[in-house]
Amino acid sequence: MKPTRITIIKAERPELTNVNDLLQWYGGSLGLFNMRDKDRSCFRVFIVLLKSSKKNIGISSEEIADATSLSRGTVVYHLNKLIEAGLAKESKKKYYLEADSLEGLTEKIRLDMGLALDNLKKLGKEIDVKMKF
Predict the structure, then answer these.
(1) What is the dotted CATH code of the domain comprising 19-131?
(2) Closest Cα to residue 31, out of 11, 51, 54, 61?
């Protein structure tokens, strides 16, 4: 099983009404968009993936590069980051989000985190017994 790196940033949701700002906050809460991403390239790749998932189609890195005006190298870098986070997948040179909605994507993350924490809890108990805690 390939490891997944999940980052959750717990922060109070600001009073936002603009969908673009809400999407930025959503992605920031997942640790996707940070201050170093000055041109919002990861955000732009994420949005293109989200739109293609709504149409239930995959999209190539070249198509994402064209849609975002980013280099293919930058797009592939961010796609790999999204795959590592368990948010995207690749099949036959096409990329997809792991779910067709943000609600579904959030649920997938919740389940992945639950499994990871259950495994840590089990291991913690095993270590406690061996160390006689």
Answers:
(1) 1.10.10.10
(2) 11
CA distance 8 to 54: 24
Residue 65 corresponds to which tokens in the numbers above?
């590069």
Helix (H/G/I), strand (E/B), else coil: 55: coil
List the chain domain ranges: 19-131
Instruction: Look at the pTM and tell me if it is higher than 0.90.
Output: no
- Interacting residues of 97 by C-beta distance below 8 A, sequence separation 6+: 49, 50, 52, 53, 87, 88, 89, 105
- Residue 64 in tokens: 């994402």
Secondary structure (3-state) at 94: strand
Rounded CA gap, 17 and 122, in Å? Answer: 42
Contact present, 80 and 114 (Cβ < 8 Å): no
Give residue-wise pLDDT tens across range 72-97: 999 999 999 999 888 999 999 999 99
